[in-house]
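Reviewers of the previous submission asked for a worked example of the structure-prediction workflow described in the proposal, so we include one complete record here. The input consisted solely of the amino acid sequence. No template or homolog information was supplied to the procedure at any stage.
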Amino acid sequence: MQQDHVDAAAGWDGENPVYEMTPPAGGHHLSAWQTCTGSVYPAPIVDGNAVHSMEHGAVWLTYDPELVDQAQIDALGLLIQGRDYSLMSPYPGQGVAVSLQSWGNRYQTDDPADATIEAYLDAYVLNERFNPEAMATCSGGVSTTVDDLQG
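From that input alone, the workflow returned the following C-alpha coordinates.
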Protein backbone atom coordinates (compact mmCIF):
# COMPACT_ATOMS: atom_id res chain seq x y z
CA MET A 1 0.00 0.00 0.00
CA GLN A 2 1.33 3.43 -0.91
CA GLN A 3 2.24 5.71 1.95
CA ASP A 4 3.69 8.95 0.60
CA HIS A 5 3.18 12.34 2.23
CA VAL A 6 1.34 14.08 -0.60
CA ASP A 7 1.85 17.57 0.83
CA ALA A 8 5.63 17.12 0.65
CA ALA A 9 5.58 16.44 -3.10
CA ALA A 10 6.50 19.11 -5.62
CA GLY A 11 3.39 20.40 -7.31
CA TRP A 12 1.02 19.50 -4.46
CA ASP A 13 -2.32 21.18 -5.16
CA GLY A 14 -3.27 21.68 -1.49
CA GLU A 15 -6.00 19.05 -1.63
CA ASN A 16 -6.57 16.09 0.64
CA PRO A 17 -5.69 12.77 -1.05
CA VAL A 18 -8.53 10.96 -2.80
CA TYR A 19 -9.21 7.48 -1.47
CA GLU A 20 -10.79 4.45 -3.13
CA MET A 21 -12.92 3.73 -0.06
CA THR A 22 -14.45 5.83 2.65
CA PRO A 23 -13.50 5.99 5.36
CA PRO A 24 -10.01 5.20 4.08
CA ALA A 25 -7.88 2.44 5.60
CA GLY A 26 -4.44 3.49 4.36
CA GLY A 27 -2.65 5.02 1.42
CA HIS A 28 -1.10 8.37 0.60
CA HIS A 29 -1.67 10.90 3.36
CA LEU A 30 -0.75 14.27 4.79
CA SER A 31 2.51 14.80 6.68
CA ALA A 32 0.70 15.74 9.92
CA TRP A 33 -1.00 12.94 11.81
CA GLN A 34 -4.18 13.33 13.83
CA THR A 35 -3.53 13.10 17.57
CA CYS A 36 -4.51 9.55 18.47
CA THR A 37 -4.04 9.25 22.20
CA GLY A 38 -7.50 7.88 22.92
CA SER A 39 -8.89 10.99 21.25
CA VAL A 40 -12.64 11.40 20.73
CA TYR A 41 -13.41 14.17 18.25
CA PRO A 42 -16.86 15.82 18.24
CA ALA A 43 -16.79 16.57 14.50
CA PRO A 44 -15.33 14.94 11.36
CA ILE A 45 -11.56 15.06 10.92
CA VAL A 46 -9.43 15.28 7.78
CA ASP A 47 -9.00 11.84 6.18
CA GLY A 48 -5.36 12.49 5.23
CA ASN A 49 -4.42 13.18 8.87
CA ALA A 50 -6.30 10.11 10.16
CA VAL A 51 -4.59 7.88 7.58
CA HIS A 52 -1.20 9.09 8.82
CA SER A 53 -2.25 8.10 12.36
CA MET A 54 -3.11 4.62 11.11
CA GLU A 55 0.36 4.38 9.58
CA HIS A 56 1.68 4.92 13.14
CA GLY A 57 -0.39 2.00 14.44
CA ALA A 58 -3.67 3.68 15.37
CA VAL A 59 -7.20 2.40 14.89
CA TRP A 60 -9.73 5.01 13.74
CA LEU A 61 -13.30 4.34 14.84
CA THR A 62 -15.88 6.27 12.83
CA TYR A 63 -19.63 6.38 13.19
CA ASP A 64 -22.47 7.75 11.10
CA PRO A 65 -24.34 10.26 13.30
CA GLU A 66 -27.56 9.53 11.40
CA LEU A 67 -27.37 5.85 12.37
CA VAL A 68 -26.05 6.03 15.95
CA ASP A 69 -27.72 7.78 18.91
CA GLN A 70 -25.95 9.78 21.63
CA ALA A 71 -25.98 6.95 24.18
CA GLN A 72 -24.30 4.67 21.62
CA ILE A 73 -21.75 7.38 20.75
CA ASP A 74 -20.95 7.76 24.45
CA ALA A 75 -20.50 3.98 24.83
CA LEU A 76 -18.17 3.86 21.81
CA GLY A 77 -16.22 6.78 23.23
CA LEU A 78 -15.57 4.79 26.40
CA LEU A 79 -13.82 2.14 24.28
CA ILE A 80 -11.49 4.80 22.85
CA GLN A 81 -10.83 7.18 25.75
CA GLY A 82 -7.62 6.25 27.52
CA ARG A 83 -6.59 3.78 24.79
CA ASP A 84 -3.40 5.11 23.22
CA TYR A 85 -3.13 4.73 19.44
CA SER A 86 -6.86 5.08 18.90
CA LEU A 87 -9.17 7.88 17.80
CA MET A 88 -12.85 8.33 17.06
CA SER A 89 -14.86 10.79 15.01
CA PRO A 90 -18.19 11.07 13.23
CA TYR A 91 -18.17 10.26 9.52
CA PRO A 92 -21.50 11.38 8.05
CA GLY A 93 -22.71 9.32 5.12
CA GLN A 94 -20.39 6.36 5.61
CA GLY A 95 -23.41 4.10 5.12
CA VAL A 96 -22.87 1.88 8.16
CA ALA A 97 -23.31 2.64 11.85
CA VAL A 98 -19.71 1.95 12.91
CA SER A 99 -16.52 1.44 10.94
CA LEU A 100 -13.08 0.65 12.32
CA GLN A 101 -10.03 1.32 10.16
CA SER A 102 -6.42 0.38 10.69
CA TRP A 103 -3.65 0.31 8.10
CA GLY A 104 -4.93 -1.99 5.35
CA ASN A 105 -7.78 -3.42 7.42
CA ARG A 106 -11.40 -2.58 8.16
CA TYR A 107 -14.38 -3.88 10.11
CA GLN A 108 -17.89 -2.46 9.70
CA THR A 109 -21.09 -3.14 11.62
CA ASP A 110 -24.57 -1.75 12.00
CA ASP A 111 -24.56 -2.76 15.68
CA PRO A 112 -22.76 -0.18 17.87
CA ALA A 113 -22.73 -2.75 20.71
CA ASP A 114 -21.04 -5.45 18.56
CA ALA A 115 -18.39 -7.19 20.72
CA THR A 116 -16.13 -7.40 17.66
CA ILE A 117 -15.50 -3.63 17.97
CA GLU A 118 -13.45 -4.07 21.14
CA ALA A 119 -11.84 -7.24 19.78
CA TYR A 120 -10.77 -5.32 16.65
CA LEU A 121 -9.24 -2.58 18.80
CA ASP A 122 -7.36 -5.17 20.85
CA ALA A 123 -6.10 -6.94 17.73
CA TYR A 124 -5.11 -3.97 15.55
CA VAL A 125 -3.89 -1.17 17.83
CA LEU A 126 -0.10 -1.13 17.35
CA ASN A 127 -0.12 -4.37 15.39
CA GLU A 128 3.38 -4.32 13.90
CA ARG A 129 2.38 -6.93 11.32
CA PHE A 130 0.16 -4.39 9.55
CA ASN A 131 1.44 -0.90 10.46
CA PRO A 132 4.43 0.41 8.51
CA GLU A 133 5.43 2.84 11.28
CA ALA A 134 4.07 1.11 14.38
CA MET A 135 5.26 2.81 17.56
CA ALA A 136 5.76 6.20 15.87
CA THR A 137 4.21 8.81 18.13
CA CYS A 138 0.50 9.46 18.32
CA SER A 139 0.84 12.57 20.48
CA GLY A 140 1.68 16.02 19.16
CA GLY A 141 -0.32 15.70 15.96
CA VAL A 142 -3.10 17.98 14.80
CA SER A 143 -6.28 18.04 16.85
CA THR A 144 -8.39 20.16 14.54
CA THR A 145 -11.66 19.01 13.03
CA VAL A 146 -13.15 19.85 9.66
CA ASP A 147 -15.45 22.28 11.49
CA ASP A 148 -12.40 24.10 12.92
CA LEU A 149 -10.89 24.43 9.45
CA GLN A 150 -14.10 25.80 7.96
CA GLY A 151 -14.21 28.37 10.75
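Strands lie at 37-40, 59-63, 86-90, 98-102, 105-109. We consider this example representative of the routine output the project will generate in years two and three.
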